[in-house]
Design a protein that fits this description.
28% of the residues lie in helices and 27% in strands. It is α+β, with helices and mostly antiparallel strands. The protein has a 4-stranded mixed sheet with strand order 1-2-3-4.
């Protein structure tokens, strides 16, 4: 297996998708199109409110990002959040918070 550094993907998302206010990349299980659980790279994102009505654009933007990434770094699942993540005193996102919020059915398959 090749290493995937979440910070690298988080940086790419924040540069290429200006409507994403926060993002956290992590490995987790999600339900695929066949209804089976599979593990892959997930992105928990907080987007600007007007983007919540345009989920297809979000999916297409992530697909465009994936086309430029090596296979082992492709994002497979997006969990769109409406509220910002809990942060530490140094303003870093608490990764455990996003893992607690992860849901295998309500995100978007990429």
């Amino acid at each position: 297996g090749k290493n995937v550094y979440p910070e690298e993907l988080e940086h790419e998302i924040s540069i290429r998708l200006p409507y994403v206010k926060e993002n956290v990349v992590y490995m987790a299980e999600f339900e695929n199109a066949c209804g089976k659980l599979q593990e892959g790279i997930c992105a928990g994102v907080v987007v600007e409110e007007e983007m919540l009505a345009n989920l297809e654009k979000i999916k297409e933007d992530f697909r465009a990002l994936n086309r430029e990434l090596p296979n082992h770094k492709k994002i497979a699942y997006i969990l769109i959040q409406t509220q910002e993540n809990e942060k530490t005193s140094s303003k870093k996102i608490k990764r455990t918070t996003i893992m607690d919020r992860h849901n295998t059915k309500t995100g978007l398959m990429i």
